[in-house]
Each structure stands twice: as C-alpha cells, then as structure tokens.
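Sanity check

After download, print the first record. It should look like this:
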Amino acid sequence: MSDETEINDARAKADAARADMFAVLGELQRRAAPATLVRDGVEAVKEKAGDAATEARRFARRRPLIAAGAVAAATAAVAWFPLRRLFVGKGNPDAD
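Expected structure tokens:
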C-alpha cells in the first residue's frame, strides 16, 4: 500500500467516525431537549397515575368500607374550612 492510499483510508475512517459522532450528538440533543423531557415526564406520570387508579379500584372492591371511610375523611379534610365558614360565619368572634 502506498502512503497516499493509507492517508486516504485514514481520512475516510476519520470522516466516518466524525459522521457517527455528529449523529450521536444530534440524538443526545433531541433527547435532552426540554420539550422531550417534559413529554417523557408527562407520559411517566400518566402511566403511574393509571396504575394507582387501577390499584385503588381493586382495593375499593376488596375493602369497600375502608375505601368509603378514606373518601369521607379526605372529603372532610378538603371541605373543613369552607364548611366552617358557612356554618360558623366569618364575622363571628367565636369562629377562632
């Protein structure tokens, strides 16, 4: 092999390696883009929420009284202050 052929082969290998590197960099940029990260995060949350909802339905079918009690407690916790204002009143000094 002549020196020129070896040089041309080395340049071809370097060009191929450079092209591969830029392809990998392009893929990394696409994966690390904020929109891609947000989309992947949203998909993961949807999947986990669906799994949790399925498990909650299974639990409610197995233990309906406990599930009803948990729903009632959560509802009471969320509605406590609005209901307190409704029945006790805002201007009542005994409200605190």
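If your output differs, re-run the checksum step. Summary of this record's structure: The mean pLDDT is 89.
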